[in-house]
Design goal:
heterodimer, A: alpha+beta, Uridine Diphospho-n-acetylenolpyruvylglucosamine Reductase, domain 3, Enolase-like, domain 1, five-stranded antiparallel β-sheet, four-stranded antiparallel β-sheet, 13 helices, about 30% helix, B: mainly alpha, two-stranded antiparallel ribbon, two-stranded antiparallel sheet
């Protein structure tokens, strides 16, 4: 691994002072699971590593305005084990538990999970693609290997977001608390935290140099809603999502007469950012939660999808996951 | 300040990627510096135009000319404004994101590029077959006019040649915009193979890395040149003494007096109104 200076600050202010001092040469280390790949492959060669592991204020889960505030350096295991997450925000538990392996969840943090870089192997191999500041996408060429890449919102780059907790956080209408380089606090909806290549092709999130994600707030709005999370991957024990779906739904009435009063529906693994399917949400609101609504939702969800050479399977996969998110897994049929 | 940006391809060979975006700021600075310098010069200098008495006499002698003289046909004006709109769209979508104003620019950029390409193609055909093709170009025959214009700008009373349909500055600008515009359009059309459009299958391997690098550099060079050129064009379009030209690009015509004051009737011949048509 290339040599670098290691700093282990104990406060956010100290961490930001270091980021300011080293500028482009600084690298923020959370759990280290994304970072060490980059460093050991010698693709990234930062001058200074700022390890956030010693900052107590970034850790832990606390009550916040009827909801929860999760420190960005809280491990995924701690998120999964927290009783209130389990009881009121079980979708986040499912999403966090679907991330990687138990050992990785013990080390990986929720802040790192939502801020990690894409896993496109052309990019991770250090090739000079658009995302790396070049002017080519190696994954979207006639002979590219692009089974895991985007089917929606591709804009030169076809990489996808690997963050497992991201769709759940967007479904919960979570707020991302950012300490800007100026020391100000900025709170943005999780939906706006992630950005696609059309806005900035070299970044996955809105974090600017010197910014730190300090916490994630879960409002009470969707606590205890009817949740659905599903992640489809090649290896069940440890893999990134091919496609995942997360939904939070509130019903009006029960049984056959019940209709969907409000819903937030998010998919991931299909674009460079987790996509909230607002058009589908509008379409299903006021409709019963049944197969017919699910079919309408699934068909609407995949409108505009443009598969690459090897990822056409993602279109029916996404459609069926959206259908399952609407009507559940019981009694439904998987359609292509 | 860097001029070019280099990268390394998967075979670890050095390849050109594009021009340094420092050049965008340089072109912006050059354009603004030019307009400040020119505006200052115009305030302080004693540039000459044709004496009013001389123009009066010419106008009295040429009452056979129509009061409104067509300078730009409807089709020519349409081309100009379509091209202007597409050019502004191209510059905004190309350079605002580089300047830090982030938005989804790619589709707007190539769509505006296609509009510009189409309008240029139309213009070439229209100018070749329906307009006086050579009236906009410059050549050795324009050296006396250049000399006379420079002397007039320096405050001398020069009886020398006046421009034909287009002032010399106008023709020189046209030449610059032709070079920059054709470079940016030709390279841009090839670059559409690198992005996703409904028209082409994306394939960055039609050229080698070196050829692509040169394509991007030429596109970038022409693009940053257009920043300065467009600033200069807009500046001259809004200058009070040039406003009659701008107005003619909107309305299509100039007055008989403007024609006689600013042009050489021998180099831009206007057909007199038949005597029986004069009321």
């Amino acid at each position: 691994m290339p040599a670098f200076e290691l700093f282990q600050p104990t406060s956010v202010a100290d961490a930001q002072a270091l980021l300011d001092r080293y500028g482009d040469g600084a690298w923020v280390l959370a759990g280290g699971l994304d970072s060490l790949d980059w460093l050991k492959d010698r693709i990234k060669r930062p001058a200074a590593l700022v390890d956030l592991g010693g900052i107590a204020e970034l850790k832990g889960i606390r009550a916040w305005q009827g909801g929860l505030e999760i420190g960005a350096m809280t491990t995924l295991t701690d998120v999964v084990r927290h009783p209130e997450v389990r009881e009121r925000y079980s979708i986040l538990l499912e999403a966090a538990e679907a991330a990687a392996s138990p050992q990785i969840r013990n080390q990986g943090t929720i802040g790192g999970n939502v801020s990690q870089d894409t896993r496109c192997w052309y990019y991770r191999a250090g090739w000079p693609c658009y995302r790396a500041g070049g002017n080519i996408c190696y994954a979207d060429t006639p002979d590219a290997i692009n089974r895991e890449h985007a089917i929606l919102e591709a804009d030169r780059c076809v990489a996808v977001s690997p963050a497992d907790t991201a769709p759940a956080l967007i479904a919960l209408d979570a707020q991302m608390v950012i300490r800007t380089a100026d020391g100000d606090e900025r709170v943005v909806p999780a939906e706006e935290y992630f950005i696609g290549p059309s806005i900035d092709i070299t970044k996955m999130t809105i974090l600017q140099p010197g910014d730190l994600l300090t916490a994630i707030r879960l409002p009470a709005t969707w606590a205890g809603a009817r949740f659905y999370f599903e992640k489809v991957r090649d290896r069940q024990v440890w893999d990134f999502a091919l496609v995942s779906v997360a939904s939070a739904m509130v019903m009006k009435g029960e049984g056959a007469s019940g209709v969907i009063e409000r819903i937030r529906l998010v998919v991931n693994g299909v674009a460079a950012r987790p996509l909230r399917l607002q058009a589908v949400e509008s379409l299903v609101q006021g409709r019963p939660r049944n197969e017919s609504t699910a079919v309408i939702a699934g068909n609407r969800a995949i409108e505009g999808a443009q598969p690459l050479r090897f990822n056409g399977y993602k279109v029916p996969l996404m459609k069926n996951l959206v259908k399952r998110a609407i009507r559940g897994v019981e009694g439904g049929t998987w359609t292509s | 300040m860097d001029i070019l940006t280099w990268g390394r391809n998967p075979w670890d060979q050095a390849i050109l990627t594009h021009v340094s975006w420092d050049l965008m700021w340089a072109s912006l600075f050059a354009g603004i510096a030019f307009l400040i310098a020119h505006a200052g010069y115009m305030v302080l200098s004693a540039h000459r135009k044709r004496h009013a008495a001389e123009t009066d006499a010419m106008e009295a002698a040429r009452t056979d000319l129509p009061e409104r003289i067509v300078r730009h046909s409807m089709m020519a004006r349409l081309f100009h404004w379509v091209m202007a709109a597409s050019m502004f769209t191209l510059l905004v979508t190309a350079f605002f994101p580089i300047a830090g104003i982030k938005f989804a620019w790619v589709t707007w950029h190539w769509a505006a590029g296609l509009v510009l390409s189409g309008s240029i193609l139309f213009h070439v055909i229209h100018a070749t077959f329906w307009l006086d093709f050579w009236s906009i170009w410059v050549g050795p025959r324009d050296i006396p006019e250049l000399k006379a214009e420079v002397l007039r700008e320096l405050g001398h009373d020069v009886p020398g040649p006046r421009p034909g349909k287009y002032p010399l500055g106008n023709r020189l600008y046209h030449l610059a915009i032709v070079l920059a515009g054709l470079s940016v359009v030709a390279t841009g059309l090839f670059m559409m193979k690198r992005v996703r459009t409904p028209f082409l299958t994306r394939d960055p391997y039609i050229f080698s890395d070196t050829t692509w690098g040169l394509t991007y550099v030429l596109h970038g060079m022409a693009g940053v040149s257009l920043v300065g050129l467009v600033i200069a064009h807009v500046y001259f379009a809004v200058r009070p003494e040039k406003w009659w030209i701008t107005k003619s690009m909107i309305l299509g015509w100039i007055t008989r007096r403007q024609y006689l004051e600013h042009h050489d009737p021998d180099r831009w011949t206007v057909q007199p109104v038949p005597p029986d048509a004069v009321k």
